[in-house]
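User: Hi! I have a protein structure encoded as tokens and I'd like to know what sequence might fold into it. I'm fairly new to this, so please keep things simple.
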């Protein structure tokens, strides 16, 4: 049914629920689990002379957060017989990075969490899950 399942993670508790579901499905299908962490672009790159120290600190923090997110997802998704591949995507907006990672790795399915924002928060912040649903060329399973 599925050979490669893409699991985007930000390390949150909600994304860990998606990791559990993705791992169970990967085990059932004999699929590889491809876990991605998307690091957004450095927010101050177009403003004046962006300090290289600030950029380096941003990159270091993002790398640490990605490592922690991978560790949490892998701990929950560690199922005997399920191969796991991790990838940190730098400088991309989350939805676009997730969809591009799915294309690149040949994912048959994207399993991801939704933080469940509603009302004004959803209007202001948008929904990564909603954008992925619109942009993805493969099925998307949303876990709340």
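Assistant: Happy to help. Inverse folding works backwards from shape to sequence: for each of the 144 positions I chose a residue that suits the local structure. Here it is:
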């Amino acid at each position: 049914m599925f050979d490669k399942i893409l699991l985007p993670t930000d390390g949150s508790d909600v994304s860990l629920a998606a990791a559990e579901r993705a791992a169970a499905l990967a085990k059932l299908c004999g699929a590889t689990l491809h876990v991605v962490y998307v690091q957004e672009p450095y927010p101050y790159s177009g403003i004046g002379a962006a300090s290289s120290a600030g950029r380096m600190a941003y990159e270091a923090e993002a790398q640490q957060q990605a490592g922690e997110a991978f560790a949490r997802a892998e701990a929950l998704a560690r199922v005997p017989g399920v191969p796991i591949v991790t990838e940190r995507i730098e400088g991309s907006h989350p939805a676009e990075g997730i969809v591009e990672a799915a294309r690149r790795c040949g994912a048959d399915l994207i399993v991801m969490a939704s933080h469940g924002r509603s009302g004004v928060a959803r209007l202001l912040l948008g929904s990564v899950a909603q954008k992925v649903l619109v942009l993805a060329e493969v099925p998307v399973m949303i876990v709340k």
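A useful reference point when you look it over: The mean pLDDT is 83. Feel free to ask if any position seems puzzling.
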